[in-house]
Amino acid sequence: MALEPVTLSGRHVELVPLSRDHREALAEAARDGELWRLWYTAVPTPDGMAAEIERRLGLQAAGAMLPFTVLDGPGGRPVGMTTYMNVDAAGPRVEIGSTWYAARVQRTPLNTEAKRLLLGHAFDRLGCLAVEFRTHFMNHQSRRAIERLGAKLDGVLRHHQRTKDGALRDTCVYSITAPEWPTVRAHLTWQLEKSR
Protein backbone atom coordinates (compact mmCIF):
# COMPACT_ATOMS: atom_id res chain seq x y z
CA MET A 1 0.00 0.00 0.00
CA ALA A 2 1.56 3.29 -1.13
CA LEU A 3 0.36 5.80 1.44
CA GLU A 4 1.64 9.03 -0.08
CA PRO A 5 0.41 12.63 0.09
CA VAL A 6 -2.50 13.22 -2.26
CA THR A 7 -5.14 15.89 -2.87
CA LEU A 8 -8.77 14.72 -2.92
CA SER A 9 -11.29 17.18 -4.35
CA GLY A 10 -15.05 17.35 -4.42
CA ARG A 11 -17.76 19.98 -4.77
CA HIS A 12 -18.03 20.86 -1.05
CA VAL A 13 -14.55 20.00 0.21
CA GLU A 14 -10.93 19.64 -0.76
CA LEU A 15 -8.49 17.55 1.26
CA VAL A 16 -4.90 18.67 0.79
CA PRO A 17 -1.67 17.45 2.38
CA LEU A 18 -1.20 19.03 5.81
CA SER A 19 1.35 21.83 5.76
CA ARG A 20 2.97 24.11 8.32
CA ASP A 21 1.64 26.97 6.18
CA HIS A 22 -1.88 26.07 7.34
CA ARG A 23 -1.15 26.83 11.03
CA GLU A 24 -2.81 30.25 11.33
CA ALA A 25 -5.93 29.31 9.38
CA LEU A 26 -6.29 26.05 11.35
CA ALA A 27 -5.91 27.94 14.63
CA GLU A 28 -8.70 30.27 13.47
CA ALA A 29 -10.86 27.25 12.54
CA ALA A 30 -10.37 25.71 15.99
CA ARG A 31 -11.49 29.00 17.59
CA ASP A 32 -14.82 28.63 15.74
CA GLY A 33 -16.71 26.76 18.44
CA GLU A 34 -13.76 26.57 20.88
CA LEU A 35 -13.51 22.92 19.95
CA TRP A 36 -10.63 22.12 22.30
CA ARG A 37 -12.97 22.69 25.26
CA LEU A 38 -14.96 19.51 24.51
CA TRP A 39 -13.72 17.13 27.18
CA TYR A 40 -14.23 13.98 25.08
CA THR A 41 -12.20 15.15 22.07
CA ALA A 42 -8.53 15.92 21.39
CA VAL A 43 -8.78 19.06 19.23
CA PRO A 44 -5.65 21.22 19.51
CA THR A 45 -5.87 24.68 21.03
CA PRO A 46 -5.02 27.59 18.74
CA ASP A 47 -1.74 28.02 20.62
CA GLY A 48 -1.02 24.31 20.30
CA MET A 49 -1.70 24.09 16.56
CA ALA A 50 1.96 24.28 15.51
CA ALA A 51 2.84 21.38 17.86
CA GLU A 52 -0.10 19.32 16.55
CA ILE A 53 0.96 19.91 12.95
CA GLU A 54 4.51 18.81 13.83
CA ARG A 55 3.16 15.70 15.61
CA ARG A 56 1.09 14.68 12.60
CA LEU A 57 3.89 15.40 10.12
CA GLY A 58 6.28 13.35 12.29
CA LEU A 59 3.88 10.39 12.22
CA GLN A 60 3.60 10.83 8.44
CA ALA A 61 7.41 10.68 8.13
CA ALA A 62 7.33 7.45 10.15
CA GLY A 63 4.70 5.93 7.82
CA ALA A 64 2.06 5.79 10.57
CA MET A 65 -0.26 8.56 9.37
CA LEU A 66 -1.31 10.52 6.30
CA PRO A 67 -2.66 13.89 7.50
CA PHE A 68 -4.88 16.26 5.53
CA THR A 69 -6.00 19.84 5.92
CA VAL A 70 -9.72 20.14 5.19
CA LEU A 71 -10.67 23.09 2.96
CA ASP A 72 -14.23 24.41 2.62
CA GLY A 73 -14.40 23.70 -1.11
CA PRO A 74 -11.73 23.53 -3.81
CA GLY A 75 -9.16 26.24 -3.10
CA GLY A 76 -11.11 27.32 0.00
CA ARG A 77 -10.03 28.17 3.55
CA PRO A 78 -8.81 25.54 6.03
CA VAL A 79 -11.66 24.47 8.31
CA GLY A 80 -10.21 21.39 10.00
CA MET A 81 -8.00 18.33 9.87
CA THR A 82 -8.41 14.63 9.17
CA THR A 83 -6.07 11.67 8.71
CA TYR A 84 -5.51 8.13 7.67
CA MET A 85 -3.99 6.62 10.81
CA ASN A 86 -3.30 3.30 12.56
CA VAL A 87 -1.98 2.15 9.21
CA ASP A 88 -1.79 -1.62 8.68
CA ALA A 89 0.04 -1.90 5.35
CA ALA A 90 -0.05 -5.70 5.44
CA GLY A 91 -3.87 -5.77 5.61
CA PRO A 92 -4.13 -3.31 4.09
CA ARG A 93 -6.33 -1.39 6.49
CA VAL A 94 -6.50 2.20 7.78
CA GLU A 95 -8.47 4.23 10.26
CA ILE A 96 -9.98 7.58 9.30
CA GLY A 97 -9.61 9.66 12.41
CA SER A 98 -8.22 12.60 14.36
CA THR A 99 -10.86 14.57 12.49
CA TRP A 100 -12.21 17.92 13.60
CA TYR A 101 -14.05 20.75 11.83
CA ALA A 102 -14.84 24.38 12.61
CA ALA A 103 -18.33 24.71 14.08
CA ARG A 104 -19.60 26.57 11.01
CA VAL A 105 -19.11 23.56 8.71
CA GLN A 106 -20.32 20.84 11.06
CA ARG A 107 -23.49 19.04 9.93
CA THR A 108 -23.02 20.26 6.35
CA PRO A 109 -22.34 18.25 3.17
CA LEU A 110 -18.60 18.89 3.75
CA ASN A 111 -18.19 15.95 6.14
CA THR A 112 -20.22 13.54 4.00
CA GLU A 113 -18.16 14.38 0.93
CA ALA A 114 -14.85 14.29 2.84
CA LYS A 115 -15.65 10.79 4.08
CA ARG A 116 -16.74 9.67 0.60
CA LEU A 117 -13.44 10.92 -0.85
CA LEU A 118 -11.35 9.29 1.91
CA LEU A 119 -13.24 6.00 1.71
CA GLY A 120 -13.04 5.97 -2.08
CA HIS A 121 -9.30 6.51 -2.02
CA ALA A 122 -8.83 3.85 0.67
CA PHE A 123 -10.87 1.18 -1.10
CA ASP A 124 -10.45 2.03 -4.79
CA ARG A 125 -6.81 3.21 -4.85
CA LEU A 126 -5.16 1.71 -1.76
CA GLY A 127 -7.02 -1.62 -1.90
CA CYS A 128 -8.02 -1.62 1.77
CA LEU A 129 -9.90 -4.62 3.15
CA ALA A 130 -11.61 -2.40 5.72
CA VAL A 131 -11.60 1.16 7.00
CA GLU A 132 -12.04 1.88 10.70
CA PHE A 133 -13.49 4.80 12.64
CA ARG A 134 -12.94 5.20 16.38
CA THR A 135 -14.49 7.64 18.81
CA HIS A 136 -15.02 8.21 22.51
CA PHE A 137 -18.03 6.31 23.85
CA MET A 138 -19.45 9.60 25.15
CA ASN A 139 -19.04 11.47 21.82
CA HIS A 140 -22.61 10.85 20.71
CA GLN A 141 -22.45 13.43 17.89
CA SER A 142 -19.46 11.65 16.35
CA ARG A 143 -21.03 8.23 16.83
CA ARG A 144 -24.22 9.32 15.03
CA ALA A 145 -22.17 10.82 12.19
CA ILE A 146 -20.17 7.59 11.79
CA GLU A 147 -23.34 5.50 11.81
CA ARG A 148 -24.94 7.79 9.19
CA LEU A 149 -22.02 6.93 6.90
CA GLY A 150 -23.05 3.28 7.02
CA ALA A 151 -20.26 2.03 9.30
CA LYS A 152 -21.07 -0.82 11.66
CA LEU A 153 -20.10 -1.00 15.31
CA ASP A 154 -17.44 -3.69 15.78
CA GLY A 155 -17.35 -3.24 19.54
CA VAL A 156 -16.24 -1.11 22.46
CA LEU A 157 -12.67 -1.16 23.75
CA ARG A 158 -13.20 -0.61 27.47
CA HIS A 159 -10.59 1.45 29.33
CA HIS A 160 -8.82 1.77 26.00
CA GLN A 161 -6.72 4.87 26.70
CA ARG A 162 -6.41 7.96 28.86
CA THR A 163 -7.90 11.29 27.84
CA LYS A 164 -6.04 14.59 28.16
CA ASP A 165 -7.36 15.02 31.71
CA GLY A 166 -6.25 11.51 32.73
CA ALA A 167 -9.71 9.89 32.68
CA LEU A 168 -10.11 6.45 31.12
CA ARG A 169 -11.74 6.39 27.70
CA ASP A 170 -13.97 3.66 26.33
CA THR A 171 -13.50 3.66 22.54
CA CYS A 172 -16.23 2.69 20.05
CA VAL A 173 -14.72 0.96 17.01
CA TYR A 174 -16.66 1.03 13.75
CA SER A 175 -15.74 -0.22 10.30
CA ILE A 176 -16.77 -0.44 6.69
CA THR A 177 -15.48 -3.48 4.77
CA ALA A 178 -14.56 -3.63 1.09
CA PRO A 179 -17.68 -5.66 0.12
CA GLU A 180 -19.85 -3.03 1.87
CA TRP A 181 -18.18 -0.10 0.08
CA PRO A 182 -20.35 -0.07 -3.11
CA THR A 183 -23.53 0.22 -1.01
CA VAL A 184 -22.00 2.82 1.30
CA ARG A 185 -20.73 4.81 -1.72
CA ALA A 186 -24.22 4.78 -3.28
CA HIS A 187 -25.72 5.94 0.02
CA LEU A 188 -23.21 8.79 0.45
CA THR A 189 -23.70 9.87 -3.17
CA TRP A 190 -27.48 9.91 -2.62
CA GLN A 191 -27.05 12.02 0.54
CA LEU A 192 -24.91 14.51 -1.37
CA GLU A 193 -27.38 14.68 -4.26
CA LYS A 194 -30.15 15.37 -1.75
CA SER A 195 -28.21 18.33 -0.35
CA ARG A 196 -27.91 20.18 -3.68
Automatic annotation (TrEMBL):
Keywords: Transferase. PANTHER family: BLL6696 PROTEIN (PTHR43610), N-ACETYLTRANSFERASE DOMAIN-CONTAINING PROTEIN (PTHR43610:SF1). It comes from the Bacteria. GO terms for molecular function: acyltransferase activity, transferring groups other than amino-acyl groups. It comes from Methylobacterium nonmethylotrophicum. This is N-acetyltransferase. Residues 13-152 form the N-acetyltransferase domain. The keyword Transferase applies. Pfam families: Acetyltransf_3. The keyword Transcription does not apply. InterPro entries: Acyl_CoA_acyltransferase, GNAT_dom.
